[in-house]
Amino acid sequence: MLIFLTIVISLVFLVRSADIFVGQATSLAKKLKVNDFIIGFTVVAFGTSLPELISTLFSSLSGHNQLVMSNIIGSNITNLCLIFGLIALFNNYRIKKRDIDINIPLNMAALMAFWSLAAYMNFTLNWASGVSLILIFLILILLSKDYNHFTSEQKEFVTFKPFLLILSLILLVTSGKICIDQIITLANELHISESILGYFLLAIGTSLPELVTTWTAVKKNNGELGVGNILGSNLFNLLFVLGVSTFIRPIKLTGFINDLIFLTGATLAVYTFAVIGKKYSFSRKEGIGLLFIYLLFALYQISKNLL
C-alpha cells in the first residue's frame, strides 16, 4: 500500500509539473502569436508528453524494456480511445476537415513509417533507428505546419515566469525517477508483469495532462487546440520519446507486435469514426465505440498477463 501511494503521489507531481510547463510554454507561444494548432501540435503536446518522456527515459536507463514500450503504446491508446471516447461521451466533439484530410492521416503515416523501420531492423531499434524516428517526427511536424493556418480568440491566461519553468523540470525529473523505481518494486512485490502496470497505472497517469488539456479546450469551444494536443502527443510519444530512448539502449519490439497492431487499429478506428460521424464530429455513439475498443485492449492485456 505504501509503494502504491508513493507511485500515485509521484504521478501527481509529474502531472502537476507538466501542467505548469504547459501553461508557461503556451503563454510564451501566444505572445509570439503562434496559431492554436501549432501550439497544440508542438508546445502543448511536448508539455503534456513530458511525463511519458521522463518516465520512459528512466525505464530505459534501468533496463526495463517492458515499461518503455507499455508506457508509449499504452499512452497512445489511452489518448485515442479513452480520452477521445470520454470527451465524446459528454460533449459533441467537432473534427475539422483538415484533421480528416491531413492530421489524422499523418498519424497513420507515422505508424506506417514506424512499422517499416521496425521490420527493416528486425524489430530491434538501435540509436540509428532513433535518429530516423526523430527525423520522421520533425518532417511530419513541418508538413502539419504547412497545412494548418488558422487563429483563435483564446486569450493568454498565465504570465510567463522562467523560474516556474525551471522548477517544473526539476520536479519532473525527481518524481519521474521515484515513480519508475516504485513501479518496478511493486511489480516484483505482486509478482506481475511490469507491462500491466505500464499499460494502465503508468500510461493512464501520464496521460492525465492530455485529458485535462483537451477537455478544457473543448469546453471552451477551442477544439482545434484539443485535437492538435492529442495528435501531437501521439506523434511525440511514438517517434520522439521512443527515438530518444534508443540512445540509452536498444529497444526490443518482439514482445509487443500484437500491441502495436492494436495501436494501429485504434488509430484507423479514430479516422473511420471521424469520417462517418455526423458533420465530422465525435458524438456519443462514436465515444462509446472508442471506449469499447479500449475495453477490448484492457481485457486482452489482462488475459495475456494475469490469466
From TrEMBL:
Signal peptide: none annotated. The chain crosses the membrane at residues 67-90, 102-121, 127-143, 163-184, 196-218, 230-248, 260-276, 288-303. GO terms for cellular component: plasma membrane. The keyword Cell division does not apply. Pfam families: Na_Ca_ex. GO terms for biological process: intracellular calcium ion homeostasis. Residues 4-143, 163-302 form the Sodium/calcium exchanger membrane region domain. Its main location: membrane. It is a multi-pass membrane protein. It is found in: Membrane. InterPro entries: K/Na/Ca-exchanger (IPR004481), NaCa_Exmemb (IPR004837), NCX_ion-bd_dom_sf (IPR044880). It comes from the Bacteria. Keywords: Membrane, Transmembrane, Transmembrane helix. PANTHER family: INNER MEMBRANE PROTEIN YRBG, SODIUM/POTASSIUM/CALCIUM EXCHANGER. This is Sodium/calcium exchanger membrane region domain-containing protein.
